[in-house]
Amino acid sequence: MDILRAYSKRAGLLEDLERAVRGLVRAAKAGQQERRNVSSAGAVNRVWALSDRLSEDDIRGLVDGYRQGRSILSLSKQYRISAAA
Fold this sequence. Notes:
- The chain is mostly helical.
- The protein folds into 2 domains: 1-46, no CATH class; 48-85, no CATH class.
- The protein contains 5 helices and no strands.
- The protein has helices at residues 2-8, 13-29, 50-53, 56-67, 72-79.
- The chain starts with a helix and ends in a 6-residue tail after the last helix.
């Protein structure tokens, strides 16, 4: 039920999910596995911590760079993170 609630919050995604389910049911009835392409239309609703992406040394370097006056843009490019992180 949680997957239905997540898809129903965005217009069009519920229809995509229903179409995929119908295709899978049709394939199951025919006794075959239907091969599907997987794609994403949006961001995952998971909050990522910097420690999920950077080592402790990287985080120290990031903070030190910021304290030394480096721009957020240059630091985000160096550490491959968003400027909002």
